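Can't attach files on this board, so I'm pasting raw text. These are the components:
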Amino acid sequence: MKRADTKTLQSFLIELVIYSVLVFLYFWAVLHFAGASLKRLFDGSRPVYATVALALMVGQAAGLEALTRWMVGFIGRRLH
Amino acid sequence: MHFAISNVDISAVYLIVIGFLIGVLGGFFGVGGSFIAGPALFAAGLPMNFVVGTDLTHIVGKSIVAARKHGLLGNIDFRLASIMVFGTITGSETGVQIIEVLKKRAEVNQVVGGVTIAVLLVMSAGMAIESWKTLHMKRTGKGGGAPAHGKKDASAFRGLSRWVQSIRLAPMVSLPNSGIASISLWAILAVSYVGGVFSGFLGGGAGYIRMPSMVYLLGIPTHIAIGTDLFEVIISAGYGAFRHALKGNVDILIALVMNTGAAIGAQIGATLTQYFAGPWIRLAFAPLPLIGAGLVVYGLVTNHPAP
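---
Top answer:
Structure tokens for the assembled complex are below.
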């Protein structure tokens, strides 16, 4: 395997571990704290629910991705 | 686990695993993965109206992660994506309206289902033959100088995209990121519009129509077609998800749980594209339209709409 490929694979494995931990924590946080509030929004105001739902999805994806990228960079700097 | 919004009990592990599989497929092929998510959610007991809306919402999150990764790899043509969004949204609206009109007519499901199956079978066979021929040309050194490796893509069907690019119907646009000097704006809109019609008609993102169309008709390199399609899906699926949420068809908690698995899978899928040349990705993609065809057959046989 080429040196560049090995580096990419190494970085990818780090990302994978970080992602697994983060999504697991986020998953429990959302289910425990946001579940009841979201149900109330769903029953009470559909436009607000739609906006919050989309914002949550975009936020979850963008937030996790950005955090992972920062952590991989941080770990990379510590390793070299 | 109980999900109060849709009032169903579904295992969280099941949702995460489904999300993971869809994430890998989406990151690698640039598809939304509705052909797996739809039946999987339906089989778990989620009502049909929630299946479509929740799946679209989950696709938004998964596509953000995968598109970001593809963006870092230089696989997104933002100019192309911004043009395609208009065609996809318009086409999607048309597809939804077609369904509403056709619902009122007898036996039309069989006719439209038959046409859809034929299109998907031709697409699957065409992709398998083309990618196989391209790989064979490469092996025998008849590749015409175009490399079957990296982002400068080789294709045995290059003549088709050259013909589309030769249509001089103003306004013409250039797509430097995709290596296209000049192409009619209408050709791009037409391809995205047709993809949108299938999306509105069959549900989901219909990436298994749009990604091959971008490669064969517009001449976009496979890696860039995947990344650009994912970026475009964020906007078009986001629009669809918002509309469904307004109608009460989205259980955001199910979508978020699925997305935790999809986020990991999308990273894997997008990273894997680096290790495969365009023709190999297209060869692996070839069976996917068959799954779409299988869903339509299922819908026709059981007289039940494909999820």
